[in-house]
Amino acid sequence: MEESFINELKTIVGEQYTLTDRESLAVYGYDSTPELESLPGAVLLPGSTEEVARIMRLCHGAGVCVTPRGSGTNLSGGSLSAGGVVVQTSRLNRLLEIDEENLTATVEPGLITSALHREVEARGLFYPPDPGSMNISTMGGNVAENSGGLRGLKYGVTADYVMGLETILADGDLLRTGGKVVKDVAGYSLNPLLVSSEGTLGFFTGITVKLIPKPQTKTTMLAHFPVLQDAAMAVSAIIAAKVIPATLEFLDKVTIKCVEDYAHVGLPLNVDAVLLIEVDGHPAVVAEEAASVAEICKKYRCSFFQTAQNPAEALKLTEARRTALSALARLKPTTILEDATVPRSCIAAMLKVIQDSAKKYDVTIGTFGHAGDGNLHPTCLTDERDQDEIKRAHAAFAEIFDAAIAMGGTITGEHGVGLAKKKYLPKLVGESGIRVMRGIKNAFDPKGILNPGKIF
Amino acid sequence: MDYVKLINCMRCGMCLPACPTYKETFLETASPRGRVALVRKVQEGQLDQSERLLEYLSLCLDCQACASACPCGVNAGELVAEFTCERKSESGLGFMEDLILRKLVPHPDRLEASMAPMRAYQRTGLQKLVRKLGILKMFPKQLERMEGLLPDLPARPLRQEIREVTPAVGTERGTVGFFLGCVMSLIFSDASRATIQLLSALGYKVITPKNQVCCGAPNMLGGDLEGLKEAARTNVDLFGGHEVDFIVTDCGGCGAELKKYGHHLEGDVPATEFSSKVRDISQVLALHAEELFPLLKPLDLRVTYHDPCHIAHCQGIRKEPRDLLKLIPGLQYTELNEADACCGSAGTYNIERPEMSDRILKRKLDNIRASGAQVLVTSNPGCLLQLKKGLAEHLPQVRIMHLTELLAMSMQL
Ligand SMILES: Cc1cc2nc3c(=O)[nH]c(=O)nc-3n(C[C@H](O)[C@H](O)[C@H](O)COP(=O)(O)OP(=O)(O)OC[C@H]3O[C@@H](n4cnc5c(N)ncnc54)[C@H](O)[C@@H]3O)c2cc1C
Fold first, then answer.
1. What angle do CA B214, B218, B219 make, to 5 degrees?
2. Distance A75 CA to ligand 1 centre (A)
């Protein structure tokens, strides 16, 4: 990157917030995606929307690429830049407003997700999206990836809560979409397009989300299943019984062991799977639903059914679940995880495909995930130094993706396409899908400077 | 350095919200994940071991909050410390390091003698004069900070005073070896005296071997691996000569180091045995909560507890100190927000990285203020020094005590 250009960047954000030393570039050259790395040309930490707009204007004029970055926890290589400018949002982290009359919150993109939870819950309100990474991830990253979470089954994903966005476009102009109104049909719906755009359509500088009243109470339960398929069938049966738990998470044996090794919460080491189930809402409904859940789990031969006795115990269980992905890395240095999602009636079939592929390609796969959403995370435990095994892991995943598509599912439920799943996208959306997406990209960013190379 | 330990980091970022320097800067270079990446890139030859890189790494407090937070079992703090120690030992000990780590620290007598001028400086009133005239402003900043940290010294180091054997009160239930930390002996002798009294009151015969030497933690910090091993050897052999049930310490830093002797002297059976016997004082007292309870008299105090990193993160001890405090009748215990976040002391960090240390200390003091406590309890001399100074300057109404001091107060010892 040319020195004169860097100097211009410095005049916008200040010297202190323009990082160009080799060490800094190196540590902004990765995110949580395994196997991927690339060095940016500079890293900027702007302190205001105005600075973001000026950066975009400058880069647009100079034809320099810009990649937005939150906490760098995405799992598809979305925040990596090859030689361009990485614009990181950690200084744009204010909670601007909680509007209790309209039930909305407006935040800057760098605010950490769980910080929003804390503030709204203190006022008896609730922002449901809670990705496993909620203590690290930013709201901007959540919107750009349309992140799901443990409460997705009942409450939906980030997209279901985004009401308004303030976005800086590729040329530095400001675009406002939506707002605090609950109904809005003026022109194309741009919010849903921007949500899950993975930093390729615009840079979010302001986000207004919908809040709901905090559920009065909740019950957290854990069911042990000696047989994997029984757990999967219990998931479908719970939903078929018209009970919609807030959380319906699945962990297989490999995952249970790793999580227990770290968290020591008393998970069973001798069963094939556990389901972590949380029902919430009005106390009477919660009691009724908890009873149905228990009955169904027993019907599907759960060997033990445990109900958390107090909020602390419940929190321990859900927090332990949040560590699943990272805990799996205890066994092997490299963890390649996938995000294939199927209609939830197909969970049992999908688990079988995963098991068969693991066996066929002789790889260890630990599986956990948002079973109630049909969204599993088969995670291959491998070692980047063993190229042969890595190849087999990818072959197994290719097969799993094919099966997911054949079941009417998708290649990624919440982690995004980024770089990691680019090559599978055409299979899913076809040529026409790619053509329409390219057209949209072109309308927003004709010069192609915003997070280039991602998605397609 | 074990390469596998470096590549075990899967970069999920779970450590970021736990890291005090990341929380202050939001910079990836100041995060555990970033530090592991830097060290790894040096090992892989992708980055040079530049001054700047070492500077980035030196911002690490080695508080190991990242290790507690890491689900994959990576200890970023320790990896950075190991890397820095190896680099320092490659370049050999400088004149000052040699003087301090080899000629002073391993010799309790010399160490104690070196403090004598300090004591005189305080007792003669010279300290007051120097402070008043602002003379220290003329010396390097570090000296001024060091001087400012030093509380009033006891008349004599505890090591010179304490008997080698303190008998049990009443029926003897067992024997413990007491490892008396240098700073505890030199500065916080009241606390260690209380520790010995507590143990003896609970029926332990307490042996405090006179010839024990510094645990070796400063050697590790200074890159003196040889010195560290020598210290370990001396202490293992010395305590090995006594039949003890536990080796007890009331210094979090010493405890963490002593528990690693088995690792430092790899393959050495007595060292492993030594380490397996080491207990923090709170662990031993908690074993006897039932016997302790009737000895405690009411204290009408609002108390909170700061977890020393060397106790919570390095030794995993969190419950015992809290349980012990809650045992005291009348005492109102309030939990400190971010209780296990570093206070910014971190060995010599508060002297070497004063600016960051002060920012971290400020956050701690804000949390202490919000807790509404009258007494702050902790159990590590580094934290005691740092927080004592911080409280004196910003929250003079809050008193700081070592855990054993408060327990002894409740027992009216
Ligand atoms: C342990 C762990 C658990 C996880 N659990 C879940 C889970 O349960 N559910 C889930 O959905 N995901 C999960 N993730 C994935 C990840 O945390 C999410 O994708 C998250 O939203 C990323 O947020 P971030 O702030 O780290 O964004 P980054 O990784 O920094 O960026 C992600 C993408 O967003 C873009 N972006 C960031 N900020 C902006 C902005 N202001 N404007 C425009 N684009 C922007 C970037 O360019 C990039 O393409 C998990 C990850 C980890 C490591």
1. 90
2. 7
State yes or no: pLDDT of B147 exceeds 80.
no
User: Six-digit token pair at B367?
Assistant: 């949390």
Q: What range does the domain containing A99 cover? A: 95-213
**A93 neighbors A112 (Cβ within 8 angstroms):** yes
Instruction: Name the CATH superfamily, with its identifier, for domain B3-91.
Output: Alpha-helical ferredoxin (1.10.1060.10)
| Token digits of residue A101 | 């009359």
Alpha-helical segments (H) within B124-187: 126-133, 141-149, 158-161, 182-186
Q: At A199, which CATH number?
A: 3.30.465.10
Residue A194 falls within a domain, yes or no?
yes
What strands lie across the sheet with A375-382, from one edge to the other? A304-307, A217-225, A273-281, A247-252, A364-370, A375-382, A334-337
Placement of tokens 């609730």 in the chain = A126
Domain boundary pick from A294, A324, A354:
A324
- The answer to whether residues A334 and A384 touch, using CB atoms and an 8 Å cutoff, is yes
Percentage of chain B beyond pLDDT 70 is 98
Q: Inter-chain contact B10–A334, Cβ cutoff 8 Å?
A: yes
Average pLDDT of the residues of chain B = 92
CATH architecture of B286-411: 3-Layer(aba) Sandwich (3.40)
What pLDDT digit, counting tens, does each position of A195-227 carry? 999 999 999 999 999 999 999 999 999 999 999
Please report where in the chains the tokens 């003329």 appear, as a residue. Answer: B138
Q: How far apart are CA A139 and CA A151, in angstroms?
A: 16
pLDDT in tens, B187-245: 999 999 999 999 999 999 999 998 999 999 998 888 888 999 999 999 999 999 999 99
Contact B28 A112 (CB under 8 A): no
Q: pLDDT tens digit string along B340-378?
A: 999 999 888 988 899 999 999 999 999 999 999 999 999
Question: What is the rounded CA–CA span in Å between residue B364 and residue B338?
Answer: 8
Per residue in A331-384, pLDDT tens? 999 999 999 999 989 999 999 999 999 999 999 999 999 999 999 999 999 999
In eight-state DSSP terms, residue A275 is E
| Number of neighbours of residue A447 by Cβ within 10 angstroms | 14
Residue A83 CB coordination number (10 Å): 13
DSSP state string for B43-88: HTTSS---HHHHHHHTT-----HHHHH-TT---HHHHHHHHHHHHH
Q: Which of A292, A324, A356 is the last residue of a domain?
A: A324
Q: How far apart are CA A177 and CA A172, in angstroms?
A: 16
Q: How far apart are CA B364 and CA B342, in angstroms?
A: 8
Q: For residue A323, which residues of chain B lie inside 8 Å, CB to CB? A: 14, 71
Residue A301 makes CB contacts below 8 A (sequence gap 6+) with A225, A226, A227, A230
Q: Between vectors from CA A62 to CA A143 and to CA A25, what angle results, nearest 5°?
A: 60
In a domain, A362, yes or no: no
Find how far residue A158's CA is from the centre of its chain.
9
Q: Is the CB of A204 under 6 A from ligand 1?
A: yes
Which pair of tokens denotes residue B175? 């024997």
**Which fold does the domain B158-284 belong to in CATH?**
Rossmann fold (3.40.50)
Pick the residue of A18, A21, A22, A23 with the most B CBs within 10 A to test the interface with B by mutation.
A23
Of the residues A13, A21, A25, A27, the best mutation for testing chain B's interface (the one with the most B CB atoms within 10 Å of its CB) is A27
**pLDDT for B246:** 98
Flag whether pLDDT at A105 surpasses 70.
Answer: yes
